[in-house]
Amino acid sequence: MRYLVGSDHSGTAVYAVGGDTAVNLTALNPAIGGDLIGLIRDESLMESIAGDLADAPRIAVDSIVPALPVAAPGTIICLGLNYTDHIKEGGYDIPDYPALFMRGRNSIMAAGAPMVRPSCSERLDYEAELMLIVGKGGRHISEADALDHVFGYTVFNDGSVRDYQRKTHQWTPGKNFDNTGAIGPFVVTPDELPQGAAGLKIESRVGTEILQSSNTGNMIWSVAQTIATISEYTTLEPGDLIAMGTPPGVGHAKKPNPRWLKPGEVVDIEIDGIGICSSPVIDERDRPVKVAAE
């Protein structure tokens, strides 16, 4: 199944996508709710509408404005170094344990929403990544059972503000600027992809300029290994997000000059079989000011 969470004139809903059209699943069963967490927690919700899908009204996918697949993920965990050539271009030694860090909710946004270059830095970088959404939670999950805990896969752009990332050995500042991590728009269930989403072409582009091009089969730690490793120290919950690291070709490592994202550009992250996460880049100074409600 290919899901899309988004909004049209009728509000935010969960859609099942087929080709260039989609069915509003929330309209068929309101218990599904406005994001994927309902389906993640209760698989029987899809069974309840299975007989209605074929004859349900369909709308154009491009008429739906994407929203976050999971509106309020409990935990967002990211791998920092998971492709050998990316590790080398960054000047790091190849680790024997994955480099893990966390993102906060304010740092993420839906595909299609502006990616904000902060006013304090021009060193906004892109990172094409596979992201998984946890279905069944748990602790001490074995590698052999780990893939049973995946609800689906999506696309992630781990936007990084590099000078702030380098200010400390912990990467938190550079990885948590508001509206720098784009997610989506599609979530694809494991049955439609190779095991562990391995062997998929992954690429980042600005227009016709190819910035990164690799394959998820080149990841050092597989999806199963990553889930097992993370669940050694924390309990994973349904709807948690795990980003699987980026391949080589990031902007800070370009020679002879770094390649930073600029306002006015649109960066596309594509993973075969899943889709394209597209983000227009804006400067924080040009971002509309939110007025607090009285």
From TrEMBL:
Alphabetic keyword roster: Hydrolase, Metal-binding
One MF term in the entry's GO annotations: hydrolase activity
Family stated for the protein in its record: Belongs to the FAH family.
Name this polypeptide is given: Fumarylacetoacetate hydrolase family protein
InterPro entries, A to Z: FAH, Fumarylacetoacetase-like_C, Fumarylacetoacetase_C_sf
Organism annotation: Meridianimarinicoccus marinus
Protein's UniProt keywords contain Metal-binding: yes
Domain Fumarylacetoacetase-like C-terminal: residue ranges: 75-281
UniProt xrefs under PANTHER family: FUMARYLACETOACETATE HYDROLASE DOMAIN-CONTAINING PROTEIN 2A (PTHR42796:SF4), FUMARYLACETOACETATE HYDROLASE DOMAIN-CONTAINING PROTEIN 2A-RELATED (PTHR42796)
